[in-house]
Amino acid sequence: MSIPVGRIEQEMSxxxxxxxxxxxxxxxxxxDGQIVMMAPPSQRHExxxxxxxxxxxxxxxxxxxxxxxxxxxxxxxxxxTKHTVVQPDIMxxxxxxxxxGQICDGAPDLVIEILSPSNIRHDTFVKFNxxxxxxxxxxxxxxxxxxxxMVYTLNGTKYESTAYDYPNYVTIPVGILPGLEIDxxxxxxxxxxxxxxxxx
Length: 200
Fold this sequence. Notes:
alpha+beta; tt1808, chain A; six-stranded mixed beta sheet; three-stranded mixed beta sheet; 13 strands; about 20% helix
């Protein structure tokens, strides 16, 4: 039986099986068994997400790795008893045995989160530590208001960081995908056409 948003209770402990049964209208993550509701993205968030996904998808045509958007979940395997299921804005998975048809069962190779005012701490602290503990090889945090990206690369048990601010940097090399460089001109230069008031 599906679980509608009206029946979700913050004080309950939820599992991966509960997450699978959430209604389609429920956009939420489970962190250590606790539900975390996710706010709808802004237009700029969506524009950045679509452009980044497009560049990854174009490069990965015919290659073993796959890129996924934010509605696909990840069941993180951590040294804890309670379940954790997250929905990254973008992820790249190269080990296809982790893909069950419903979820990525284990850490993706690369995760990208695009910050919104409501999720800054969640992405920069909570999920940062979850991805580190789970062994995500490369974690990007996109700062839309600053036209910047922080790239964290796993080195042993720690992340090493590199900052890319546009237009000082116009490309970002993808560590797990040699040969791919993300074009920041296309990611951040997305000015919407001004309406003219004229009917075509």
